Amino acid sequence: MNQIVEKVLFSEKVAKFVVDAPRIARSRKPGHFVILRVDEKGERIPLTIADADPVKGTITLVVQKMGVSSAKLFELNASDQILDLVGPLGKATHIHKPGTILACGGGVGVAPMLPIVEAFKKAGNRVISIIAARNKDLIILEDDIRKWSDEVIVMTDDGSYGTKGLVTAGAEMVIQRETVNECIAIGPAVMMKFTSLLTKKYNIPTQASLNAIMVDGTGMCGACRVSVGGRTMFTCIDGPEFDAHQIDFDELIMRLGGYSDEEKMASERYV
Amino acid sequence: MMSTNKEYLQIEREKEWRAQLRKKIANKDRTAKTRTQMPELDPFVRIRYQDREVNTGLSAQQAVAEASRCLDCVNPTCIEGCPVSINIPKFIKYIEQGEFLEAAKTLKETSALPAVCGRVCPQEKQCEATCFYTQKLKKDPVAIGHLERFAADYERESGSMSVPEVAAPNGIKVAAIGSGPASLSFAGDMIKLGYDVTVFEALHEIGGVLKYGIPEFRLPNKIVDVELANLEQMGVKFVRNFIVGKTASFDDLKEEGFQAFFVASGAGLPRFMNIPGENYNGILSSNEYLTRVNLMNAASDEFDTPIIKGKSVAVIGGGNTAMDSVRTAKRLGAERAMIVYRRSRHEMPARVEEVHHAEEEGIEFLNLTNPVEYFADQKGKVNRMRVQRMELGEPDASGRRSPVVIEGSEYDIPVDLVVVAVGVSPNPLIPSEVKDLKVTRWGTIVVNEETMQCSIPELFAGGDIVRGGATVILAMGDGRKAAANMDEYLKSK
Ligand SMILES: Cc1cc2nc3c(=O)[nH]c(=O)nc-3n(C[C@H](O)[C@H](O)[C@H](O)COP(=O)(O)OP(=O)(O)OC[C@H]3O[C@@H](n4cnc5c(N)ncnc54)[C@H](O)[C@@H]3O)c2cc1C
Ligand SMILES: Cc1cc2nc3c(=O)[nH]c(=O)nc-3n(C[C@H](O)[C@H](O)[C@H](O)COP(=O)(O)OP(=O)(O)OC[C@H]3O[C@@H](n4cnc5c(N)ncnc54)[C@H](O)[C@@H]3O)c2cc1C
Ligand code: SF4
Ligand code: SF4
Ligand code: FES
């Protein structure tokens, strides 16, 4: 059992949870995630560790309400317990100093991007972050991202905040303006796909952090398999980050819909 | 070890009650009896329930009758076939005598999980294969597995479970990694020796494959839970949601006082065939399929984890995992539930009983058949598979005749769910987290076979992480061996 220490609502659909998990807080690195199960009947869902405080023994998760499981978590409040929480899972991000980093985060993807941006900044890189969402209400963690970025560009689909347009428009503007040595893309699969196509055009090495469907997170089930460079990989143990230019995004998008009929039925039962 | 000792067997055998019992029935009358059949649920009834056990268990009368077939041999070859050296004639003779609780106690002298092994051991390849009846009389062996299950079940249901004696605590902390049968049997032995034992498990449930893999209709979870409670009562600590090497490193644990480790992290990594279309939706590993159903209760509407309930289901493979998957699919409403296996029935690695039960349940067997490609609808959901026919060629290294493709024999089968059960590879988590740990080309951990010790002296290993996908009882045998040798190692340190 892990206690929720603090909950902050970012919007109607996005919230931050600070959770008591001393071991994980100590051993996690940027790029790692956890798997949790809210209650006895719950699903095991993966969530990135957005931040951690090894002294207080807490980790921070940022959750977007999607279907039943994320909604159940969303309903919990400070001092409530999460039944099962395991981690840190996945391979940590390879942090190094290529020079200028362009970090593109879409929607709730900005949360997993935060520790990566922080680590690259601390490693001495120039970091330019683009945070994008459908509208102003869905822009999250702007101040935290600003703290670790040399420049932040905000993009919204509807122009309600920052610049109107997609993440790729902002990214292309930066790439044409200055030399970008490496790019990171985290967000919805479609967003990562188009970001990857863009950086491929400019030959910029790009990492994408994938949100495949998972069950165990330990390499045991293969639900999270993705094709990277023509080979089947398991997102939970080989990833979640991969060379974006090698990823078969269309397959990923198809696989994310693998249980959509069943999930829809579950949602209908839930409401 | 006391129990493998010939002398000890001899002393036990010469006890008055056993000598008397042997005289009660002449051997030729014993051998004239036919083997008692295990009562089963009707196939038409049982395929409607995911959670009703197929074998319903011997009655006391049936058990006594079957026990009286055992000749209490001077040289009980049956024991040689049991990886944990259960004193088979002793427990069976207690059953014949009607002392069922004593029989259960005998089982527990050497086995941490008798109710489990009685159900899932491939007895026909182990103890029953080396029984005098099989070897010398060419008759059906004594139903050792069924009797073992009977005694363990009797004890559990009697409400007077005996808790094995535990030595005074010696304060030495040891850890087991993974909570499958290898670890459980290790933990049982170490706690008896007085060690402070903690079992770490990555998942939210204790039991390894016994919980997430083997279905309820074959091994009810509540039976595993009773055995776990027994270990807990003896003082074993279980820590869930803890991945050794990730949540904490070996160094962290050493700092916390753990002096030696038993690695039993299993062969969890599912293999796929790498054929076109294998990543379409509706094609999953048996591990995923069975985990969703058994660990996550996905077949029940009350639980959040989804499952695809296929109407036309193909399961690829011929092992226990394949049988469990295909029979699960049948129970979840499949109209066609098929085994697609590239060799013939004779080569199937599954327990004979499971294949037989599957046949009774209306499972179709497409033997000598192999998938070559999958096709899907516009949404990427599988709807058809292409297979080719095979024939058996020369025996390969494993002694099994290897399948050869019949050219031009391809045909298509409509399917809406495919479960791939073609084997597992060792779980790579521990080998990748421990520098300098010696592993084989296949990723299994290298151990000294006599002691189960790894290339790093304070690490011992056993079960599937050492053997690749093997069996419950072999894993348990490893656990016992590792415990005895770790004890030696720690004492001499
Ligand atoms: C490594 C990793 C890290 C993640 N980190 C975060 C995070 O920090 N914050 C966060 O909010 N989410 C994160 N996710 C995604 C999160 O796990 C899913 O949103 C969640 O499992 C959905 O469960 P649900 O029952 O609420 O929705 P479901 O009912 O399962 O799904 C609702 C809808 O979302 C789609 N969907 C299902 N799974 C995913 C998925 N993995 N990604 C995108 N769409 C999906 C379905 O097709 C469906 O239409 C991460 C995923 C992975 C693999
Ligand atoms: C569906 C199925 C049916 C089977 N049927 C039979 C049968 O009828 N008869 C038979 O004899 N055998 C059967 N087997 C095989 C048998 O179950 C295995 O050989 C046996 O369970 C191996 O035991 P183990 O202790 O080595 O590991 P496992 O039972 O595999 O347990 C390993 C455990 O370790 C955990 N783990 C892994 N890494 C870590 C880590 N770093 N930290 C913490 N925990 C970790 C895993 O989550 C897992 O729970 C079957 C297997 C399957 C999958
Ligand atoms: S544990 Fe398995 S091999 Fe040993 S006696 Fe029992 S059924 Fe036979
Ligand atoms: S070999 Fe068979 S008959 Fe002889 S003691 Fe063992 S079980 Fe009984
Ligand atoms: S989530 Fe099961 S293997 Fe990756």
Task: Write a concise keyword list for the protein shown above.
heterodimer; A: 271 residues; alpha/beta; seven-stranded mixed β-sheet; 9 helices; B: 493 residues; five-stranded parallel β-sheet; 21 helices; binds flavin-adenine dinucleotide; binds iron/sulfur cluster; binds FE2/S2 (inorganic) cluster
Q: What can you see in these coordinates?
A:
- The complex is a heterodimer of chains A (271) and B (493).
- Chain A contains nine helices and 17 strands.
- Chain A has 271 residues and is of the alpha/beta class.
- Chain B has 21 helices and 16 strands.
- Chain B has helices at residues 6-14, 16-24, 27-32, 43-46, 60-67, 77-80, 88-97, 100-110, 114-120, 132-137, 144-158, 181-192, 209-212, 221-234, 250-255, 286-295, 320-331, 352-360, 429-433, 464-467, 472-492; strands at residues 173-177, 196-200, 237-239, 258-263, 269-270, 283-285, 312-316, 336-341, 364-367, 369-376, 382-395, 401-405, 411-414, 417-420, 424-425, 459-461.
- In chain B, β7, α17 (320-331) and β8 form a beta-alpha-beta unit.
- At the A-B interface, α1, α2, β8, α8 and α9 of A face β5 and α16 of B.
- The structure holds flavin-adenine dinucleotide (2 copies), iron/sulfur cluster (2 copies) and FE2/S2 (inorganic) cluster.
